Amino acid sequence: MQPIEKEYSDIPGTTVFDADQSRKGYGVNMFCMSLLKEANRKAFKADEALYLKAFKLTPEQTDAVLNREWNRMLELGGNIYFTAKLGATDGLSFQQMAAKMTGSTQQEYADMMLAGGRSPNGARTKSEWKK
Amino acid sequence: MAKIVAGVATSHVPAIGAALDNGKTQEPYWQRVFAGYEESKKWIAEVKPDVCIVVFNDHATAFSVDVVPTFALGCAAEFAPADEGWGPRPVPVVHGHPELAAHIAQSVILDEFDLTVVNNMEVDHGLTVPLSLMFGQPEEWPCKIIPLAVNVVLFPPPTGNRCFNLGAAIRRAVESYPEDLKVVIFGTGGMSHQISGPRAGLINSEFDKAFLDGMSNDPQKIIKIKHVEYMREAGAEGIEMVMWLVMRGALDEHVRERYRFYTVPASNTAVGHLILENPSQMAAE
User: Fold this and answer.
1) Which fold has domain B3-282?
2) I need a labelling partner for B195 at 20 to 30 A (CA). Which of B5, B49, B212, B236 fits?
3) Does the beta-carbon distance from A98 to B198 stay under 8 Å?
4) What is the ipTM of this complex?
5) Dihedral (CA of B186, B146, B126, B81) sign
Protein backbone atom coordinates (compact mmCIF):
# COMPACT_ATOMS: atom_id res chain seq x y z
CA MET A 1 0.00 0.00 0.00
CA GLN A 2 1.20 3.51 -0.81
CA PRO A 3 1.60 5.64 2.31
CA ILE A 4 -1.34 7.99 2.79
CA GLU A 5 -0.36 11.52 1.82
CA LYS A 6 -0.79 13.95 4.69
CA GLU A 7 -1.43 17.57 3.82
CA TYR A 8 0.56 18.72 6.84
CA SER A 9 3.71 16.92 5.70
CA ASP A 10 4.53 20.04 3.65
CA ILE A 11 4.95 22.22 6.75
CA PRO A 12 8.70 22.73 7.14
CA GLY A 13 10.70 22.05 10.29
CA THR A 14 7.71 20.37 11.88
CA THR A 15 6.89 16.78 12.83
CA VAL A 16 3.18 16.50 13.43
CA PHE A 17 2.49 14.11 16.30
CA ASP A 18 -0.27 11.97 14.80
CA ALA A 19 -1.36 8.43 15.61
CA ASP A 20 1.40 6.94 13.41
CA GLN A 21 4.09 8.92 15.23
CA SER A 22 2.48 8.15 18.54
CA ARG A 23 2.70 4.40 17.90
CA LYS A 24 6.31 4.71 16.79
CA GLY A 25 7.29 6.82 19.76
CA TYR A 26 5.35 5.01 22.46
CA GLY A 27 8.48 3.90 24.34
CA VAL A 28 10.18 7.30 24.15
CA ASN A 29 7.08 9.09 25.38
CA MET A 30 6.36 6.66 28.19
CA PHE A 31 9.98 6.92 29.32
CA CYS A 32 9.63 10.71 29.38
CA MET A 33 6.34 10.40 31.23
CA SER A 34 8.07 8.38 33.97
CA LEU A 35 10.22 11.45 34.68
CA LEU A 36 7.23 13.19 36.23
CA LYS A 37 8.23 11.43 39.44
CA GLU A 38 11.18 12.83 41.37
CA ALA A 39 12.42 9.34 42.32
CA ASN A 40 12.50 8.33 38.66
CA ARG A 41 14.36 11.50 37.67
CA LYS A 42 17.02 10.57 40.22
CA ALA A 43 17.21 6.95 39.06
CA PHE A 44 17.54 8.06 35.43
CA LYS A 45 20.28 10.55 36.26
CA ALA A 46 22.17 7.88 38.23
CA ASP A 47 22.43 5.51 35.23
CA GLU A 48 20.71 6.71 32.08
CA ALA A 49 21.39 3.70 29.85
CA LEU A 50 20.30 1.23 32.51
CA TYR A 51 17.14 3.19 33.27
CA LEU A 52 16.18 3.26 29.58
CA LYS A 53 16.27 -0.55 29.40
CA ALA A 54 12.98 -0.67 31.29
CA PHE A 55 11.27 0.97 28.29
CA LYS A 56 10.81 -0.41 24.81
CA LEU A 57 13.07 1.95 22.88
CA THR A 58 14.73 1.10 19.56
CA PRO A 59 18.54 1.48 19.49
CA GLU A 60 18.08 4.69 17.45
CA GLN A 61 15.67 6.11 20.02
CA THR A 62 18.00 5.15 22.85
CA ASP A 63 20.89 6.99 21.16
CA ALA A 64 18.72 10.04 20.52
CA VAL A 65 17.77 10.20 24.20
CA LEU A 66 21.28 9.58 25.55
CA ASN A 67 22.77 12.17 23.17
CA ARG A 68 19.90 14.63 23.74
CA GLU A 69 19.17 14.90 20.03
CA TRP A 70 15.93 16.80 20.56
CA ASN A 71 14.81 16.99 16.92
CA ARG A 72 15.70 13.35 16.30
CA MET A 73 13.54 12.31 19.26
CA LEU A 74 10.58 14.06 17.62
CA GLU A 75 11.28 12.43 14.25
CA LEU A 76 11.37 9.04 15.96
CA GLY A 77 7.94 9.52 17.49
CA GLY A 78 8.61 11.64 20.54
CA ASN A 79 6.28 14.51 21.32
CA ILE A 80 7.50 17.85 22.60
CA TYR A 81 5.31 17.80 25.71
CA PHE A 82 6.85 14.47 26.64
CA THR A 83 10.45 15.30 25.69
CA ALA A 84 10.06 18.51 27.70
CA LYS A 85 10.07 16.31 30.78
CA LEU A 86 13.52 15.09 29.83
CA GLY A 87 14.41 18.76 29.32
CA ALA A 88 13.07 19.56 32.78
CA THR A 89 15.13 16.73 34.23
CA ASP A 90 18.18 18.38 32.66
CA GLY A 91 17.07 21.74 34.07
CA LEU A 92 16.04 23.17 30.69
CA SER A 93 13.06 25.45 30.14
CA PHE A 94 10.85 25.19 27.05
CA GLN A 95 12.66 28.18 25.62
CA GLN A 96 16.08 26.63 26.13
CA MET A 97 14.88 23.46 24.42
CA ALA A 98 13.42 25.44 21.54
CA ALA A 99 16.73 27.23 21.06
CA LYS A 100 18.50 23.88 20.79
CA MET A 101 15.98 22.54 18.26
CA THR A 102 16.44 25.59 16.04
CA GLY A 103 20.22 25.32 16.22
CA SER A 104 20.54 28.73 17.88
CA THR A 105 22.20 29.80 21.07
CA GLN A 106 19.83 30.65 23.90
CA GLN A 107 20.66 34.36 23.44
CA GLU A 108 20.05 34.31 19.67
CA TYR A 109 16.73 32.56 20.15
CA ALA A 110 15.60 34.87 22.97
CA ASP A 111 16.55 37.88 20.81
CA MET A 112 14.54 36.52 17.88
CA MET A 113 11.51 36.14 20.15
CA LEU A 114 11.91 39.65 21.57
CA ALA A 115 12.06 41.00 18.02
CA GLY A 116 8.64 39.46 17.35
CA GLY A 117 9.49 35.83 16.71
CA ARG A 118 10.07 33.87 13.52
CA SER A 119 8.03 35.29 10.65
CA PRO A 120 5.68 32.87 8.89
CA ASN A 121 6.91 34.37 5.61
CA GLY A 122 9.32 31.85 4.17
CA ALA A 123 8.28 29.24 6.74
CA ARG A 124 4.93 28.06 5.37
CA THR A 125 6.03 25.31 2.97
CA LYS A 126 9.07 23.11 2.54
CA SER A 127 9.86 24.64 -0.86
CA GLU A 128 10.12 28.19 0.47
CA TRP A 129 11.89 27.03 3.68
CA LYS A 130 14.96 25.79 1.75
CA LYS A 131 15.62 29.14 0.10
CA MET B 1 -30.97 28.71 37.35
CA ALA B 2 -27.28 28.72 36.48
CA LYS B 3 -26.07 31.03 33.74
CA ILE B 4 -22.91 31.77 31.80
CA VAL B 5 -22.28 35.50 32.12
CA ALA B 6 -18.99 35.83 30.26
CA GLY B 7 -16.09 34.17 28.53
CA VAL B 8 -12.38 34.68 29.13
CA ALA B 9 -9.73 33.69 26.61
CA THR B 10 -6.09 33.58 27.59
CA SER B 11 -2.78 31.98 26.73
CA HIS B 12 -1.33 29.62 29.31
CA VAL B 13 2.44 29.86 28.74
CA PRO B 14 4.27 27.81 31.43
CA ALA B 15 7.00 30.45 31.78
CA ILE B 16 4.31 32.88 33.01
CA GLY B 17 3.65 30.52 35.91
CA ALA B 18 7.37 30.19 36.57
CA ALA B 19 7.80 33.99 36.52
CA LEU B 20 5.01 34.35 39.10
CA ASP B 21 6.20 31.51 41.29
CA ASN B 22 9.79 32.79 41.26
CA GLY B 23 8.88 36.41 41.99
CA LYS B 24 9.93 37.81 38.62
CA THR B 25 6.73 39.74 37.92
CA GLN B 26 8.43 43.13 38.33
CA GLU B 27 11.11 42.44 35.72
CA PRO B 28 10.37 44.60 32.65
CA TYR B 29 10.00 41.53 30.41
CA TRP B 30 7.29 40.06 32.63
CA GLN B 31 5.79 43.37 33.71
CA ARG B 32 4.73 43.86 30.08
CA VAL B 33 2.77 40.59 30.28
CA PHE B 34 1.28 40.91 33.77
CA ALA B 35 0.26 44.55 33.26
CA GLY B 36 -2.10 43.28 30.58
CA TYR B 37 -4.09 41.35 33.19
CA GLU B 38 -4.54 44.06 35.84
CA GLU B 39 -7.90 45.15 34.39
CA SER B 40 -8.98 41.53 34.12
CA LYS B 41 -8.26 40.78 37.76
CA LYS B 42 -10.41 43.76 38.76
CA TRP B 43 -13.13 42.66 36.37
CA ILE B 44 -13.35 39.11 37.68
CA ALA B 45 -13.22 40.30 41.31
CA GLU B 46 -16.31 42.39 40.54
CA VAL B 47 -18.12 39.68 38.62
CA LYS B 48 -17.43 37.14 41.41
CA PRO B 49 -18.30 33.95 39.53
CA ASP B 50 -19.44 30.97 41.59
CA VAL B 51 -17.94 28.57 39.09
CA CYS B 52 -15.43 28.83 36.25
CA ILE B 53 -15.46 26.17 33.56
CA VAL B 54 -11.89 26.11 32.31
CA VAL B 55 -11.36 24.63 28.85
CA PHE B 56 -7.68 23.71 28.77
CA ASN B 57 -5.30 21.10 27.54
CA ASP B 58 -3.27 18.63 29.47
CA HIS B 59 0.38 18.58 28.41
CA ALA B 60 1.17 14.90 28.85
CA THR B 61 0.61 15.19 32.58
CA ALA B 62 -2.67 13.48 33.48
CA PHE B 63 -2.90 11.71 30.12
CA SER B 64 0.07 9.88 28.64
CA VAL B 65 -0.07 8.15 25.26
CA ASP B 66 -1.86 5.18 26.84
CA VAL B 67 -5.27 6.80 26.56
CA VAL B 68 -5.98 10.10 24.82
CA PRO B 69 -9.51 11.41 25.36
CA THR B 70 -10.66 14.12 22.95
CA PHE B 71 -12.84 15.85 25.54
CA ALA B 72 -12.52 14.98 29.25
CA LEU B 73 -14.58 16.66 31.95
CA GLY B 74 -13.22 16.87 35.48
CA CYS B 75 -16.01 15.69 37.77
CA ALA B 76 -13.94 15.32 40.97
CA ALA B 77 -14.14 17.42 44.12
CA GLU B 78 -10.44 18.32 43.96
CA PHE B 79 -7.66 18.54 41.42
CA ALA B 80 -4.09 18.77 42.69
CA PRO B 81 -1.43 20.83 40.86
CA ALA B 82 0.87 18.39 39.05
CA ASP B 83 4.63 17.96 39.09
CA GLU B 84 5.50 18.54 35.42
CA GLY B 85 9.17 17.80 35.94
CA TRP B 86 10.17 21.00 37.71
CA GLY B 87 8.15 20.17 40.86
CA PRO B 88 4.48 21.17 41.37
CA ARG B 89 3.58 24.86 41.11
CA PRO B 90 3.02 26.39 44.57
CA VAL B 91 -0.61 27.20 43.85
CA PRO B 92 -3.77 26.20 45.72
CA VAL B 93 -5.53 22.92 45.11
CA VAL B 94 -8.33 23.38 42.60
CA HIS B 95 -11.79 22.69 44.01
CA GLY B 96 -14.32 21.34 41.56
CA HIS B 97 -18.08 21.48 41.44
CA PRO B 98 -18.88 17.77 41.14
CA GLU B 99 -22.67 18.20 41.02
CA LEU B 100 -22.65 20.75 38.20
CA ALA B 101 -19.92 18.79 36.41
CA ALA B 102 -21.95 15.58 36.60
CA HIS B 103 -24.97 17.44 35.28
CA ILE B 104 -22.95 18.87 32.38
CA ALA B 105 -21.51 15.44 31.55
CA GLN B 106 -24.92 13.83 31.49
CA SER B 107 -26.51 16.68 29.59
CA VAL B 108 -23.90 16.98 26.82
CA ILE B 109 -23.57 13.21 26.33
CA LEU B 110 -27.32 12.94 25.83
CA ASP B 111 -26.93 15.96 23.53
CA GLU B 112 -24.58 13.72 21.47
CA PHE B 113 -21.18 15.01 22.65
CA ASP B 114 -19.45 11.85 23.84
CA LEU B 115 -17.04 13.22 26.38
CA THR B 116 -15.00 11.29 28.90
CA VAL B 117 -15.74 11.60 32.62
CA VAL B 118 -12.64 12.02 34.80
CA ASN B 119 -12.76 11.41 38.54
CA ASN B 120 -9.05 11.64 39.22
CA MET B 121 -6.81 14.14 37.48
CA GLU B 122 -3.84 16.28 38.40
CA VAL B 123 -3.82 19.61 36.61
CA ASP B 124 -0.82 21.20 34.92
CA HIS B 125 0.12 24.72 33.81
CA GLY B 126 -2.56 24.58 31.12
CA LEU B 127 -5.14 25.03 33.87
CA THR B 128 -3.25 26.77 36.66
CA VAL B 129 -1.56 29.55 34.66
CA PRO B 130 -4.88 31.03 33.45
CA LEU B 131 -6.14 30.92 37.07
CA SER B 132 -3.00 32.73 38.25
CA LEU B 133 -3.37 35.37 35.54
CA MET B 134 -7.00 36.06 36.42
CA PHE B 135 -6.92 35.62 40.20
CA GLY B 136 -3.32 36.43 41.15
CA GLN B 137 -1.75 34.53 44.02
CA PRO B 138 -4.49 33.91 46.61
CA GLU B 139 -4.36 31.36 49.46
CA GLU B 140 -7.37 29.64 47.89
CA TRP B 141 -8.91 30.07 44.43
CA PRO B 142 -12.00 32.25 44.94
CA CYS B 143 -14.45 29.97 43.11
CA LYS B 144 -15.15 26.40 42.09
CA ILE B 145 -13.43 25.24 38.91
CA ILE B 146 -14.65 22.64 36.42
CA PRO B 147 -11.78 21.56 34.16
CA LEU B 148 -12.59 20.47 30.61
CA ALA B 149 -9.51 18.96 29.00
CA VAL B 150 -9.34 19.01 25.20
CA ASN B 151 -6.79 16.91 23.35
CA VAL B 152 -4.53 19.16 21.29
CA VAL B 153 -1.38 17.07 21.77
CA LEU B 154 -2.14 14.09 19.54
CA PHE B 155 -3.18 15.13 16.02
CA PRO B 156 -5.97 15.66 15.19
CA PRO B 157 -7.64 17.68 17.91
CA PRO B 158 -11.38 18.18 17.53
CA THR B 159 -12.30 20.71 14.83
CA GLY B 160 -13.04 24.32 15.67
CA ASN B 161 -16.62 23.74 14.62
CA ARG B 162 -16.96 20.76 16.95
CA CYS B 163 -15.50 22.77 19.82
CA PHE B 164 -17.91 25.63 19.14
CA ASN B 165 -20.89 23.28 19.12
CA LEU B 166 -19.74 21.63 22.34
CA GLY B 167 -19.65 25.09 23.90
CA ALA B 168 -23.28 25.60 22.89
CA ALA B 169 -24.17 22.23 24.44
CA ILE B 170 -22.38 23.20 27.66
CA ARG B 171 -24.43 26.37 27.77
CA ARG B 172 -27.65 24.37 27.43
CA ALA B 173 -26.44 22.12 30.23
CA VAL B 174 -25.57 25.01 32.55
CA GLU B 175 -28.87 26.75 31.87
CA SER B 176 -30.79 23.61 32.81
CA TYR B 177 -29.07 23.37 36.22
CA PRO B 178 -31.54 24.44 38.92
CA GLU B 179 -29.19 26.21 41.34
CA ASP B 180 -28.58 29.95 40.91
CA LEU B 181 -24.94 29.99 39.89
CA LYS B 182 -22.95 32.58 38.05
CA VAL B 183 -20.59 30.85 35.63
CA VAL B 184 -17.67 32.21 33.61
CA ILE B 185 -16.16 30.00 30.93
CA PHE B 186 -12.45 30.14 30.03
CA GLY B 187 -10.95 29.17 26.68
CA THR B 188 -7.19 28.83 27.11
CA GLY B 189 -4.02 28.19 25.13
CA GLY B 190 -2.57 29.85 22.04
CA MET B 191 -1.95 32.19 20.49
CA SER B 192 0.51 31.61 17.66
CA HIS B 193 3.49 29.56 18.78
CA GLN B 194 5.63 26.65 17.84
CA ILE B 195 7.86 25.07 20.46
CA SER B 196 8.93 21.96 18.56
CA GLY B 197 11.50 21.35 15.86
CA PRO B 198 13.61 23.62 13.66
CA ARG B 199 10.65 25.96 12.98
CA ALA B 200 10.20 26.77 16.70
CA GLY B 201 9.67 30.42 17.51
CA LEU B 202 7.08 31.06 14.82
CA ILE B 203 4.78 33.98 15.64
CA ASN B 204 2.04 35.31 13.36
CA SER B 205 0.55 38.47 14.82
CA GLU B 206 -1.60 39.08 11.76
CA PHE B 207 -3.26 35.69 12.15
CA ASP B 208 -3.67 36.22 15.89
CA LYS B 209 -5.29 39.63 15.52
CA ALA B 210 -7.71 38.33 12.90
CA PHE B 211 -8.56 35.49 15.27
CA LEU B 212 -9.21 37.91 18.15
CA ASP B 213 -11.49 39.92 15.85
CA GLY B 214 -13.26 36.75 14.81
CA MET B 215 -13.81 35.75 18.44
CA SER B 216 -15.51 39.08 19.05
CA ASN B 217 -17.40 39.72 15.86
CA ASP B 218 -17.44 36.78 13.50
CA PRO B 219 -17.11 33.37 15.16
CA GLN B 220 -18.79 31.70 12.18
CA LYS B 221 -15.75 32.64 10.13
CA ILE B 222 -13.09 31.31 12.49
CA ILE B 223 -14.83 28.03 13.27
CA LYS B 224 -14.06 27.07 9.66
CA ILE B 225 -10.27 27.37 10.03
CA LYS B 226 -8.73 24.01 9.16
CA HIS B 227 -6.12 22.30 11.31
CA VAL B 228 -3.46 22.50 8.61
CA GLU B 229 -4.03 26.25 8.39
CA TYR B 230 -3.60 26.71 12.16
CA MET B 231 -0.36 24.73 12.05
CA ARG B 232 1.03 26.38 8.92
CA GLU B 233 0.06 29.93 9.88
CA ALA B 234 0.14 29.94 13.67
CA GLY B 235 2.69 27.21 14.45
CA ALA B 236 2.27 23.54 15.23
CA GLU B 237 1.16 24.30 18.78
CA GLY B 238 -0.96 27.30 17.73
CA ILE B 239 -3.67 24.74 17.04
CA GLU B 240 -4.54 25.12 20.74
CA MET B 241 -6.71 28.04 19.68
CA VAL B 242 -9.55 25.61 18.91
CA MET B 243 -10.09 25.55 22.69
CA TRP B 244 -11.12 29.21 22.63
CA LEU B 245 -14.01 28.19 20.39
CA VAL B 246 -15.58 26.01 23.09
CA MET B 247 -15.82 29.18 25.17
CA ARG B 248 -17.16 31.20 22.24
CA GLY B 249 -19.84 28.61 21.52
CA ALA B 250 -21.16 29.00 25.06
CA LEU B 251 -21.85 32.72 24.53
CA ASP B 252 -24.46 34.74 22.64
CA GLU B 253 -24.07 35.27 18.91
CA HIS B 254 -23.34 38.94 19.61
CA VAL B 255 -21.08 39.57 22.56
CA ARG B 256 -19.65 42.66 24.18
CA GLU B 257 -15.86 42.78 24.02
CA ARG B 258 -15.03 44.08 27.46
CA TYR B 259 -11.26 43.80 27.22
CA ARG B 260 -8.48 42.78 24.87
CA PHE B 261 -4.74 42.36 25.36
CA TYR B 262 -2.04 41.09 23.02
CA THR B 263 1.71 40.99 23.42
CA VAL B 264 4.74 39.19 21.94
CA PRO B 265 6.53 37.29 23.35
CA ALA B 266 6.19 35.36 26.56
CA SER B 267 8.93 32.80 26.19
CA ASN B 268 8.06 31.11 22.84
CA THR B 269 4.54 32.38 22.54
CA ALA B 270 2.26 35.23 21.52
CA VAL B 271 0.00 36.07 24.45
CA GLY B 272 -3.62 36.86 23.65
CA HIS B 273 -6.41 37.65 26.06
CA LEU B 274 -10.07 38.58 25.70
CA ILE B 275 -12.99 39.15 28.00
CA LEU B 276 -16.31 38.72 26.23
CA GLU B 277 -19.49 39.48 28.11
CA ASN B 278 -22.67 37.63 27.36
CA PRO B 279 -25.17 40.49 27.01
CA SER B 280 -28.35 38.45 27.53
CA GLN B 281 -27.03 36.96 30.78
CA MET B 282 -25.19 40.00 32.15
CA ALA B 283 -28.34 42.09 31.66
CA ALA B 284 -30.22 39.93 34.15
CA GLU B 285 -27.74 40.99 36.85
Assistant:
1) Protocatechuate 4,5-dioxygenase; Chain B (3.40.830)
2) B212
3) no
4) 0.95
5) positive
